[in-house]
Amino acid sequence: MAKKQFKSESKRLLDLMINSIYTHKEIFLRELISNESDAIDKLYYRALTDDNLTFNREDYYIRIDTDKEARTITITDTGIGMSADELETNLGTIAKSGSLDFKKQHEISEDADIIGQFGVGFYSAFMIADTVIVKSRKLGDDSANKWESSGADGYTIEPCEKDSVGTQIILKLKDNTEDENYDEFLEEFRLRGIIKKYSDYIRYPIKMLVTKSRPKPKADENEQTEYETYKEDETLNSMIPIWRKNKSELSEDEYNSFYKEKFYDFEDPILTIHTSADGVTSYKALLYVPAHAPFDYYTKEYEKGLQLYANGVMIMDKCADLLPDCFGFVKGLVDSADLSLNISREILQHDRQLKVIANHLQKKIKSELLNLLKNDREKYEKFYTAFARPLKFGIYNEFGKDKDLLKDLLMFCSSKEKKLVTLAEYVERMPEDQKFIYYAGGESVDKIEKLPQAELVTDKGYEILYFTEDVDEFAIQILREFEGKEFKSISASDLGIDDEGKKDEEQKESENKDLFMFMKDALSGKVKDVKASTRLKTHPVCLTSEGALSIEMEKVLNAMPTDNKVRAERILEINVNHPIFNKLTDMLKKDKDKLKKYTEVLYGGALLIDGLSVDDPVEFSNNICDLID
Ligand code: ADP
Fold first, then answer.
1. Which of 24, 56, 324, 371 is deepest in the core (most CB within 10 A)?
2. pLDDT tens digit string along 99-140?
3. Domains contained in the chain, CATH given
4. How far is the CA of 36 from the centre of ligand 1 (A)?
5. Cα 21-88-117 angle, rounded to 5 deg
6. pLDDT, tens digit, 9 for 90 and up, residues 179-193
7. Whose CA is nearest to atom 14 of ligand 1?
8. What is the pTM of this model?
């Protein structure tokens, strides 16, 4: 019989996969068992929706047999089976997922049920076997077919005998080499261990003929007990999904390894939430907060959502409605008996029960995160460093719908200890006379620390929150206040601080009206005003802004690829106690041309301090040179 070639780049892929995708050879068993369990799911689904089919619980199982002489492992399932065509399409093309086709044919939503994520699992068999035979008989077919392949050189498909519906996979183990001993996979204890480790919660029994021992019957009571061995079928997996077990039965290790396998992470989660509810809507949920953002988290490709099971049967792989965007990083699953089975995604969206569950979970995630903050600060900070952005965007989104949910979870680096503080901690240690929560925006903590605008606030001994992310100030503007204290930028035109010095400055300003007016005119529309500063102590000048739009926000908005550029209302503040001020007043009398240049240079300097660029760098530089002269 002519050998068929694997499709597309399959050959190279096959080779690559066998040799490098999986680090542990033992996972071939997990992959095959998962496929078999999926195949049984499909049959189960059919039986539920087709009245002509009757199956009993006992009819669904997976079997493993070994033959030490022939060096084969045989894995059999009572699933839906594959026709010759399906053997061809599913196993002849790597990375083509038959599960996906099944869903399309049955108009099940893309997310729903039985997802073979990558469509390569089956080929992991070639890591340990040099020949793989798949005998399969599809539900409704009278005949069966055999697919056989010895790896990259192709495969054959021909009719064969098979009494019952389902699939049987025969693996002929590779020859042992100096480095690899494949015979270990014929050992009962080894197979038992692998199944326990990876496939314990497969919902169908995984049976194997195992060796047991029992006392031999005694002829006489006083005889010494002797033991004999015998073979008996045993179900190796506990079948109870981990989330259905009691918390007390589960170790942290078990929770963590379940997470890592199911959600493809190499690191333990930072937080595990195992919760359940009984009542009008009953459900069990197992949620995890990852220790780091998934590699695609900040891309459009990332899909949030929890796996949804209806009574142990997976309905949807990523049910987005169960998680608000701000907690989109949470992984996990929900199992509820109160959802109907063959619901499509549209119906689910309007499912009232689903909303109730989502609401509960949202509160639960928040309270568990707050617990973490209270009990394990280091871990919380690790979490926060990874996921501050979605929380802040969560506050900003939809006009602050979720702001109350999220505000207690926020943290910012602050001027006091240069460490992260929560808003509650900030407010708690505010001096009595401090009315506002002060913040300063900038590129980095280092740069913010040097801002002249901060002088008065720091002088007063007030703490400043450092906003280094573009979203920070936008989020805080939506939040407006925390525990009755409003937020205020250190660059706001009015800092809300009663300072004794203020009177002097006000006096100097009114005495020098002409000067300020001249400078404002010299800057011709670039600033809204030039004022005597009440906040500068040692620095000569700074920029502040009036109105809702700050200079930091202007920067963020203008960095976006749109034509709508915005402009904050800038105020140039001059330190009237700085020597430069005397020069300016002097200049007003003596040399107005020079004063104009001074003004432009001071304004340019203030722009640079705030990380903005000067409008005309050449003119700026020429002005400096002229003045040095
Ligand atoms: P995946 O399971 O990720 O889709 P695989 O390469 O493991 O990819 O399998 C390819 C396809 O072959 C599966 O999607 C499924 O349709 C089919 N298949 C594999 N094993 C079985 C089985 N035991 N019974 C029925 N179909 C199977």
1. 324
2. 444 444 544 443 333 323 334 578 889 889 999 999 999 999
3. 8-212 (3.30.565.10), 242-379 (3.30.230.80), 410-489 (3.40.50.11260), 502-627 (1.20.120.790)
4. 8
5. 40
6. 889 999 999 999 999
7. 98
8. 0.64
